[in-house]
Specification:
The protein is α/β, with parallel strands linked by helices. It folds into two domains: 204 residues, DHBP synthase, CATH 3.90.870.10; 76 residues, no CATH class. The protein is 30% helix and 18% strand. The protein has a ten-stranded mixed beta sheet, with helices on both faces. Strands 11-14-12-13 form a four-stranded parallel beta sheet, covered by helices on one side. The longest helix is centred in the last third of the chain and has 17 residues. It is globular.
Length: 314
Amino acid sequence: MASKKVTLRLQADSAGISRAAELLAQGGLVAVPTETVYGLAACADSVDAVAGIYEAKGRPSFNPLIVHVSDVDQADQLADFDARAHLLADRFWPGPLTMVLPLRVGAVLAGAVTAGLPTVALRSPAHPAMRALLGQCDFTLAAPSANRSGWVSPTSADHVLATLDGRIDAVLDGGETERGLESTIVALRPNDGWSLLRPGPVTEAELAEILGEGPLPVGEGVEAPGQLAQHYAPGKPVRLNAQHAEADEYLIGFADVVGDCSLSQSGDLAEAAAQLYACLYSGAQSALPKIAVATIPDVGIGYAINDRLRRAAA
């Protein structure tokens, strides 16, 4: 078990970002806002710091981490960045797209970051606080979601502290995140093939516009975060496609289904994505022992929402 720490709550201003950079340079763990969810950042080339992420989260050692970079030049030092990767970066970086690429020979990363795989997952985030932090660090940041492993991903500093208070050095409080769902993860395969490892804000259709039709099937092994069958769990049984709540259920509504918490009363899927984890947190904290969730259309970002809900209900 991780030793008890005093977790600082830093504001996402220049002073807070500078303090966060100092803690990271000293090998500390800092939760940082991104446009998707809060990430638990550590120096990606420090064996001890990266080990601290796994310890604080209780994360399985076979589950690799995403490395956050400031730009393509930094990414190119860590991975074999081919023409397809450049096209994707031009379109979606900085933003909510993670690319799984062949690890560059001699890349300076702690071995646990890639969990022993020959690939590395890279993302250039868009959130101004995270970008400012990367600008103050002369190293890249490994940063999975800032929550206990398997639990609901955090979209606010309060969510981070709900499971990691006393286990990490600080949380950089940048308010609620904008997107609310983790980044899309795409793996670029040899001979122009590609696989969608985790659906997210960047849709399969948008990827296909650049990469060509049809993602290849995903193998059985874990190549990137978010692939475990049970994940994003609120700690209670979750029933999907509910039209109403049973007496012992907290209802998460959508559109015409009115719930204790609504993902979007207007049926807006982008709003639903942004509200998903906040509603799951509310359901987890309610006195009711079960959670029910209204039907979400399986189109666009709704596909990513349903991916998270299926894993939460597993």
